[in-house]
Amino acid sequence: MNNKSTQTMTFGPLQELIDDSEVEEIWINSPSQVFVARSGQSELTNLILTKEVVQDLIERLLIWGGRRLDVSTPFVDARLPDGSRLHVAIPEVTASEWAINIRKHLGKGSNFEELVTLGSISEDMAEFMKKAIDLGFNILVSGGTQAGKTTFLNALLGQVSPMERVITIEEVFELKPNLPDWIALQTRTANIEGEGEISLRRLIKESLRMRPSRIIVGEVREAEALD
Q1: Which of 26, 58, 134, 181 is most exposed by smallest CB count within 10 Å?
Q2: Is residue 52 within 8 Å of residue 13, measured between CB atoms?
């Protein structure tokens, strides 16, 4: 089966939106409320689904993302094979409907040169950040949702010397450094018995025993920020 038919089978009625290069993110509030973001602005589409179609879409996306969703695990955050970021919340924690977000991987601004061309940063800022990487500075990337934090982190990683050993730690795999000595670690939620969880904080501690030159934590929201 070719890639196109696989995508069509997986995204179903959302495929046209997935294929639209101007669409940055797709989210479903209810079968009759399918939104997209274009250039940072949200708009309601004319797409009308059914509850059965939404349920079927969720089941296929979860299989593709390799994640489980139930009352004990009411949220799912996963990366799909095409690089898109999937988030799902079950009706038990929303008002009534499944809440689905698919943030597309657009591949823009993968290096500082592209970020300068896009107008995201100035040439002076690009040179400053390159020098900061060369000198081994600690760097904190902060910003709101959809601000481009992961894109900027990937651009920073593009400046790391291939002689360095890099460990990336994420809840969902998104960072993609083109480095020969790179290990990617990902958190894991507890199983249905409540066992087997691997937290960001645990991964940070384990990474210190892996001889890293640099440790990159993709996103911090809780106690791991102290580490």
Answers
A1: 134
A2: no
CA pair distance 214, 133, nearest whole angstrom: 10
- Residues contacting 121, CB < 8 A, separation 6+: 112, 115, 129
Flag whether pLDDT at 10 surpasses 80.
no
Domains present along the chain, CATH in parentheses = 3-103 (3.30.450.90), 112-217 (3.40.50.300)
Residue 12: DSSP 8-state = G
Q: Is the pTM of this model over 0.90?
A: no
Q: Of the given ranges (6-10, 40-44, 196-200, 202-206), which has the lowest mean pLDDT? A: 6-10
Give yes or no for a contact between 158 and 178, defined as CB atoms under 8 angstroms apart.
yes
Residue-wise pLDDT for 182-201, tens only, equals 999 999 887 777 778 899 99
- Cα distances from 24 to residues 12, 103, 177, 216, in angstroms, run 18, 6, 22, 25
Q: Which of 87-91, 144-148, 156-160, 198-202 has the lowest mean pLDDT?
A: 144-148
Between CA 9 and CA 4 the distance in angstroms is 9
Q: What are phi and psi of 48, to 5 degrees?
A: -115, 125
Q: Is 39 left (phi over 0), alpha (psi -120 to 50) or beta?
A: left
